[in-house]
Amino acid sequence: MKVFFAGSIRGGRQLISTYEYIIRFLEAHNYMIISEHVALQDLERIEAKMTEQAIFKKDTTWIEESDCVIAEVTVPSTGVGYEICHAVNHQKPVLCVYEEGAKVSAMVLGNTSKYIIARSYSNKQQLEEILLDFLGKNSRM
């Protein structure tokens, strides 16, 4: 199963270790993460060599090729919001996870589309359970 992982890049990189944890956890459970670059420490420097159009094309193509999207939305990001909308518009199941107590956008929490689910987590074990539950339900689609 191909998973597009979304996390804040230009909006703030304070959760890189969480992004890396999610990606490694999913890979350990045999999920293919097609956007694992999101967890790279020097991603902004790498993407600085790309045009805005190339980044847009790469990410939207990967979303369209994915089976689902998992977005860590604790850190507000216009790009992640756009990726979520792009996925929903292409009828891809989307899981938005966020740290308990985070001020998450009403545009995510208030979305009642059958394609989007938002769940808070308070620790890594709870996060793992949320991820596996979502992927287990969507691997049967």
TrEMBL record:
Protein name (database record): Putative 2'-deoxynucleoside 5'-phosphate N-hydrolase 1
Entry's Gene Ontology molecular function annotations: 5-hydroxymethyl-dUMP N-hydrolase activity; transferase activity
EC number: 3.2.2.-
InterPro entries, per the entry: 2'-dNMP_N-hydrolase, DNPH1, Nucleoside_deoxyribTrfase
Species for this entry: Candidatus Methanoperedens nitratireducens
UniProt keyword annotation of Hydrolase present: yes
Coiled-coil regions listed: none
HAMAP family: Nuc_phosphate_hydrolase (MF_03036)
Top-rank lineage group of the source organism: Archaea
Subunit: Monomer and homodimer.
